[in-house]
Amino acid sequence: MISLSLPSVFGQNNSIARPNVIVILADDMGYGDVSAYGSKTISTPNIDYLAKQGVCFTDGHSTSATSTPSRYGLFTGCYPWKNKDAKILPGDAPLLIKESQFTMPKTFQNAGYTTAAIGKWHLGMGNGNADWNKKVTPGANEIGFDYSCLIAATNDRVPTVYVENGYVVGLDSNDPIRVNYEKNYEGEPTALSNPEMLKMHWSHGHNNSIVNGIPRIGFMKGGNSAKWVDENMADYFIGKVKDFIENNHEKPFFLYYGLHQPHVPRAPHHRFVGKSGMGPRGDALLEADWCVGELISILKKKGLLENTLIVFSSDNGPVLNDGYKDGAVEMLGGHKPAADMRGGKYSLFEAGTRVPFFVFWKNHISPVVSDALVSQLDLLASFADLIDADIPEDLDSENLLGVFMGNSVVGRKSFITEAMGRLAYRKGDYMLIPPYKGEKRNLTGNELGIVDDFSLFNLKTDIGQTNDLSEQEVKLTKNMKSEFLSRTKGYYNPENKGETLK
How many CB atoms are located within 10 Å of the residue 270 CB? Predict the structure, then answer.
């Protein structure tokens, strides 16, 4: 525990009740996708409210540049690259987090909190051979969540159904679900066999089963009464969030709220269609902001805003063409999803993990812009201090409660970042990217951060990472290289060509 513990946060003798804690995690939202950081091409007033009335981090990071490992790091407080299975999972993957593993929700559960996970999951469900017509277990409930209502993976992967406490919502037993990621079921239409059924067309990878006029990754048969309607997903999940808060507002709760925006397929509710001027991706950003506004409203209604700490962030950086022809590139205009940074989702460059990151607690946190280096990895240890909970000593999570409360600007000294199985090293203002094999860009067009030799960048003076300093800063490069190789011994492999996009 650090010196800023319960007495200084809550007052003497812990006389104020422990706060509710909510983590809102957007999906593929970039640093430049919110107006809180100065973007003039998008307006996100509800997200901005959290940023402007709390701690607005300018150097806040996800643990990975892709979804599954990022969430793994968030929930376990452990570097995802230490787990060989922590990579982008298909929709039928088994639960990635072991039931015996310590987790963020268990931290709160053990302290008497009611816990819930609602929205995007992508950490696997079941044992690897899930029968979606019965209870799918283990899942979120088995690793610390009292209640869960989730999508198994991503909204572009089958099964395209909601799973509530392990059970598919709205399933008709006479129309059982079958899921396969290797081959189609006889007679079932796909984007290749029946393109006339599509209302959204694929650009790469997304040409398997068609649901709601949108082609997906993977094959699915049956379960028609349970299939979601993409345009209603935001309303569905915020409804579940409101129900949970209504039913649990009289005692402390921890809520993970996983937004699905602006991940593909971008199919926002008709209320938002055309509102951004940037096509479906921009409209999805507006929908995400609306979701945050609805959450704030229910907290105000129940008188909980002053006793609820809210963290808002994103699982990784932005991407435009991630598999569908939705105009994200063509309609971008002057909008810069990654701000002035290089890379994005899938990338070792800075935009892969530097994401929106805000911590809000009305009347307990004073508004401040913080340049402290922080990671979502550190929320677990910091929350544990906040609620005076015990956690294992072997986690990678660091206790930065004072930083998250805005009372300190001394963040992390360093961390290892990860993208598609590849690693890089951040220390202070500097980023060291080691050499890897493979293409410099993937199918999305995003730069992956592939360099020919160890490259050093000063992010304070060169946020766009255009100037390699390795030959000028020889000693620093040598020292950081030595530290990186020592910390990643057995994990760093220069032959690693990264994961293949499905």
Answer: 9
